[in-house]
Amino acid sequence: MSTPFGLFIDLIVTLKNHQVLFSVPKKRVRSAVERNALKRKMREAYRLHKHFLLPGTEVYLSVAYLYIGRDRSCSYNMIEKSLVGTLHYLNALYGSKDDTVL
C-alpha cells in the first residue's frame, strides 16, 4: 500500500517549533466538503502523533503534506497510518544520531 501523501520538507534553523501545512488540491478532490474533511482527518492524525516528530532535539522542520491519493474519501485509519509512517521517516532522517542523554 502506498502513502496518499506527497511530503515536502525544509529544515529552517531559525524556527522555534515545527510548522506543518496540510493541502488537498481541488484538482484531486472537487468537492469542498470532501477536501475539508480530508484536511480535518490529516490535522487530527498529526495532533495525536506529533510527539513522534524529533523528540528531544533542537531541529525544527517546516513540513507540507500534499494529498495525492486517488480515493476521494480516504478513511481516517489509512491517513493515520500513512502520517505516522512519515513522522517515523522524518525522525529517522533528521533525528539525533546520538542516543545518549546529556
- Cα(first) to Cα(last) distance is 40 Å
Beta content = 15-25%
| Shape designation | elongated
> What spatial order of strands do you see in the largest sheet?
1-3-2
Unreliable stretches: none
**Helix content percent band:** 25-40%
Task: Please render the helix and strand layout as text.
Elements: E1 5-11, E2 19-23, H1 32-49, E3 61-67, H2 76-94
Parallel strand pairs: 2-3
Antiparallel strand pairs: 1-3
Q: How does this structure look, described?
A:
- The chain is of the alpha+beta class.
- It is built from 2 helices and 3 strands; from the N terminus they run ββαβα.
- β2, α1 and β3 form a beta-alpha-beta unit.
- The longest helix has 19 residues.
What are the main properties of this structure?
102 residues; Ribosomal Protein S5, domain 2; 2 helices; elongated
